[in-house]
Amino acid sequence: MTPTVRDVLDAAVASVGGTQRPGQVAMAEAVERAFREKKHLLVQAGTGTGKSLGYLVPSLLHGDRVVVATATLNLQHQLVERDIPALKDAARSTLDEVPHHAVLKGRSNYACLHRVREGAPDDQGVLVEVPEGTLGAEVVALREWAEHAAEDGHSGDRDSAPSHSERSWRQVSVSARECLGASRCPYATECFAERAREDAQDAQIVVTNHAMLAIDAIDGVPMLPQFDTVVVDEAHELAARVTQAATQELDPAGIERAARRARPHLDEPQTADDLSDAADSLADTLTHLQPGRIDEISQPLRAALEFVRDTARACFSAFGKESGGPGGEADPARQQARGMVDELRQVAERMARGSETDVLWLGDTRSGLQLRVAPIDVSGALRDKLFGEKTVVLTSATLTLGGTFDPVARSLGLWEDEEWIGLDVGSPFDYAKQGMLYVARHLPTPGREGLEEDQLGEITALVKAAGGRTLGLFSSRRGAERAAEYVRLALPEVEVLCQGDAQLPELARRFAADPRTCLFGTLSLWQGVDLPGDTCTLVIIDRIPFPRPDDPLMSARQRLVEKRGGNGFMQVAAHHAALLLAQGAGRLIRRADDRGVVAILDPRLVTARYGGFLAASLPGLWRTTDRATVMGALRRLDDAATARDAT
C-alpha cells in the first residue's frame, strides 16, 4: 500500500525523537489536499509547530516536482542540511524509493572557475592580481577551496566556503550578467552553477529563494526547472522580496564606470565619451533635486535620463564582434562591460518612461546621489504570473493580521472572490500562561525626535527588573544606540550590546552565552533571531513600527490604495506595523518552557482606534497595562533563572 502523509510524518517525527503535534498533522494533510485539488492554501503555523515537515512530507509524496522558496539563507540552509535529509532517512522505512532533492541559488552564490583560474577584470579590463594582506589570503584560500571542490564534485556553494569577506567573494564569483555562458566558457563542464541546475532537473524537491522564484515566474527568465507546484515559506516576506528583485538603481558613478569598462572594447570609442558626458549631465541634474519621492519627472531630469538611455544604446551598438574560434573567443571583461551598458539603457528607459505602476525616488547614499525605481504594487504580477499559473502553498508564523488572512492575501494578489483556503493550525505553546504583553499606557506617545527621558527611564527599570536578559527592538539605529548608552550609564553592572558594535552573528552569540546581557538593535533583529531560554525573558519594543512618512515606496502605495477608494493608512502603514509587531513579539516564546514579557512602550496600542487591529495580530500573551504587575513578574523570573544558574 502507498503510505499516507500521516504514515511518513509519524516516521519522520519518531526518527528525530519528537512528539506528534496536532497542528503539524493538520497542516501536512491540508497541504497534501491542496496539491491534489490544485487549490491555493495559506497556512499560519505558529512557532514550535514544525511547519517544515508539515509541507516537506506532502512534497516528498506528491509525485511531481515541488519548488520550496524561502526568504532567508538560514532557513534554506536548515532545510537542505537538516530537515530534508532527516525526512528522507525516515521515509526509507515507508517508501520503496526516496525522491531526490536539490538546492538552487543565484549564480553569484557559486564560485566561478573561469574567474578562479583566469582572474577578475578590473575597471580597465585587465586581470586583478591577488592583493597582499588579509584580502589576498582570503582570495587564495577561496581559490584553493574552489579547485578542491571541483576535483571532489562538491557544490562550490558559498555556504561551504572558508571564512571570507564580501570583497573576497567577488574575486571568485560572477553575476548572471558577467557569466560567459555555458556555450562559450572553457570550464562549463565543471561549472558549479551549471551542475546545480542539472541536479535540479532530476530533483522532485527543489529548494530556492523568493528572488529566484520571482525572476523565474514573474519576469519569465528561466531560472528553475519546470514546475507546477510551489511552497512559499516565510511567505509574509514574499511581496517585499519580489519588490526588491524588481528594484533598479542608477547613479552617475555607475554610468562612468560602465563607460570606462566599455571603452577598450568599442569600434567607436567616442560613444564611451558620450556616455561619460551623460553621467555628468545626470549628476548636475540630481544636485538640483531634493532627496525623496519624485511624483512628476521634470523636463531636465527626463532629458538627462533620455541622454543616458540614448548614449548607452549607441555604446552598446559599438561593441565589435569578438575574434577567435567558432562562437568567438571568451572575453570576460568585454562580457561584463557589454552587460553593464545594456543594463544602464534598460534602467534609464524605465525611469524616463515614468510609468504609473512604478515609483521613482532620489536617495543620498554613501557614494552619492542615486535614483531608484520600484514597482508600487506587485500583487497583480503575483496574481497573473504565479497564482494564475501554479498551485501555491503559502506558510509563515505570521500570515493573519487583525485576526484574518485577508490583508496578506490581498497584498499578494489573492482576492476574496478567488479560490483559496486559509488555515491557522495554531501553536503548541500556551502563550497566555507562558508570557505577558505589557503596554506602557502611562508613557507619552513617542515623538518624531526619538526616545525621550520617560521612555529611557522605563527601559532602564524593565532591564533592571529582568536582571538583563533583554532583547531591545528599536525603530531606528539612533534609538537603539541612545538606549544602549543610557542603560550602560544607569546600570553599569549590566552588559549592553548594540547593533553595530560587531557583526550580528557575533553579537547574537555573545548575547546567548551570557543570560544577563542585553542586545539592542533594529530591523534585522525583529525577524529570524531564535534565542530560547533565560537569555531572552524580556523583549522591549520602543514604538509601533509604522513606516516613515517620507518612505518613498510605502507612501506611494498608500496613495495608490486611496486612489482606488481604500484606506491607505490601514492597508499599508498599519499592515506593515502589524506584521513587524507580530514578528518582534514572536522573539519571546521559542519553546515550551520559555517564560517572559513583551513590553511595548507605545500607548497607542491600547488608546488609538487602530490599536485593536494591531493587537489582534499579536500572539495570545496575557495582557496588562499595570506596571507594578510586570515589574514583579520580571523580578520573579530573574530570581528563578538565577537559582537555575546556581545549580
From TrEMBL:
Pfam families: Helicase_C_2. Residues 148-169 are annotated as: Disordered. The keyword ATP-binding applies. It is an enzyme of class 5 (isomerase). Residues 10-305 form the Helicase ATP-binding domain. Keywords: ATP-binding, Helicase, Hydrolase, Nucleotide-binding. Belongs to the helicase family. DinG subfamily. This is ATP-dependent helicase DinG.
